[in-house]
Design a protein that fits this description.
six-stranded parallel sheet; Trehalose-6-phosphate synthase; eight-stranded mixed sheet; globular; Glyco_trans_20; binds 6-O-phosphono-beta-D-fructofuranose; 14 strands; Rossmann fold; alpha/beta
């Protein structure tokens, strides 16, 4: 079997390599199970100075060899924080107004892509299949081709791709699009993303084509987590604490794309419109801090603190807190067990590549009492999850009505909806996603 070379900015940290956490890492881990694999990327460390000769750290766990390099402070600021997460991220999530455009960051973004190519090229062997991931690395394929790498190279974009009318607000959009020609296969999450990217290729006269490869989770492993989580003392503690009150749950990285202020306003509207639920329901929002040095993420945190405080101050009682809000991550087993315990989940991003939390929520439920998924129409997962309660995340009244409907839904309706959702979650998995992408890449005839 050929060796698979995965390249992504984020590589599972050493402590997580046996059981990685986080969407992309978990999906890829399930995906690479069947291949000898080299996984190349950023070590997650910032190194001092302007290190021309920075060390490559190599570590093998099972069939995967991890090869990582550090980034200097300047690279971290310009490549990761600046261009990737301060410019491309908001733009691809249809939020051009949040871009902090800087040519200086662009230059560093390009130089880190060249650095990745230069350090990866000597590690490549004949017949390797190279799979590059996400917006941090749009130009990596071209940088590898410039070094005369002839291997098959594929690219998968995990986040949305906006219409060309929006994308072109990036001054170098055409150059980025042209760089994508270096890839043999270009994959995106949804039909909308493919339509948008192919429209851009057509407008620019670029002979390339994006194809849809929807990502999934490893549902068996998540269902096992939910079962194992049943014995955790924290679960029993929460269960006792609820004293029969239904639990509403939300789990998201702290990111403005997740629609958190809008969601909280939706919950406030729910408490206002349905006063019978005051004191009778618990909403647990788990929102680990992410990209905390990017200014927009800092202001989001301040905004969330304010809204949560306002809701708790307005509706709270001496023995009831309407929103329980955490900003630290919880272990997967515990999350899965909380999912199983809950009556409803709020997954309401304003825009999302796929959203694997929605699929994990379904995988964690049990047939005796499945919870209801409330899902944004703008998550990439929505077209295949129409048995969730689909909402427009901007509309707090619609969120309020969906919460009411979820909490009053009969067991038979919950079961019917869950069975259908479940079929899809078990049909499109992380493994099937990877298999179909790698098969497409293997079919390509190299020049
Ligand atoms: O899914 C998009 C993505 O940027 C992944 O590439 C990444 O693993 C995840 O979000 C978390 O983001 P970050 O690596 O910036 O913490």
């Amino acid at each position: 079997m050929r060796r698979l070379v995965i390249v992504s900015n984020r590589v599972p940290a050493v402590r997580d390599r046996k059981q990685p956490a986080g969407g992309l890492a978990v999906a890829l881990r399930a995906a690479v199970r069947d291949h000898p694999c080299l996984w190349f990327g950023w070590s997650g460390q910032q190194i001092a100075g302007d290190c021309a000769d920075r060390p490559l750290s190599v570590d093998t766990v099972g069939n995967v060899t991890y090869a990582t390099i550090g980034l200097t402070h300047k690279e971290y600021n310009g490549f990761y924080q600046g261009y990737s997460n301060g410019i491309l991220w908001p733009l691809c999530h249809y939020r051009a107004g949040l871009m902090n455009y800087s040519r200086h960051d662009l230059q560093i973004y390009n130089s880190v892509n060249t650095l990745f190519a230069t350090r990866l090229a000597p590690l490549l062997e004949q017949d390797d299949v190279v799979w590059v991931h996400d917006y941090h690395l749009f130009p990596l394929g071209k940088a590898l081709r410039d070094l005369k790498i002839k291997a098959r190279i594929g690219f998968f974009l995990h986040i949305p791709f906006p219409p060309w009318s929006l994308m072109r607000s990036l001054p170098e959009a055409a150059t980025l699009m042209r760089a994508l020609r270096a890839y043999d296969v270009i994959g995106v999450q949804t039909e909308d993303d493919a339509r948008n990217m192919n429209e851009a290729f057509a407008v620019l006269g670029i002979p390339a084509k994006a194809r849809v490869f929807p990502i999934g989770i490893d549902p068996d492993s998540f269902a096992t987590c939910a079962r194992e989580g049943q014995n955790l003392p924290q679960l029993q503690h929460l269960q006792q604490d609820l004293r029969g009150k239904p639990l509403i749950i939300g789990v998201d990285r702290m990111d403005y794309s997740k629609g958190l202020p809008e969601r909280l306003r939706g919950y406030a509207t729910f408490l206002k419109r349905y006063p019978e639920y005051r004191g009778k329901v618990v909403y647990l929002q788990i929102t680990p801090i992410s990209r905390g040095s990017v200014p927009e993420y800092q202001s989001l945190r301040a905004e969330l603190d304010k809204i949560v405080g306002h809701i708790n101050g307005t509706y709270g009682q001496f023995d009831w807190t309407p929103v329980r809000y955490l900003t630290h991550p919880l272990p997967r087993e515990l999350l899965a067990a909380f999912f199983q315990l809950s009556s409803a989940a709020l997954v309401t991003p304003l825009r999302d590549g796929m959203n694997l939390v929605a699929k994990e929520y379904v995988a964690a439920q049990m047939p005796d009492n499945p919870g209801t998924l409330i899902l944004s129409r703008f998550a990439g997962a929505a077209p295949d999850m129409e048995d969730a309660l689909l909402v427009n995340p901007h509309d707090s009244d619609e969120i309020a009505s969906a919460l009411h409907k979820a909490l009053s839904m009969s067991l038979s309706e919950r079961l019917v909806r869950w069975e259908r959702l479940r079929t899809d979650v078990w049909r499109v998995t992380a493994a099937s996603w990877a298999r179909s992408f790698i098969a497409a890449l293997s079919e390509v005839r190299t020049a």
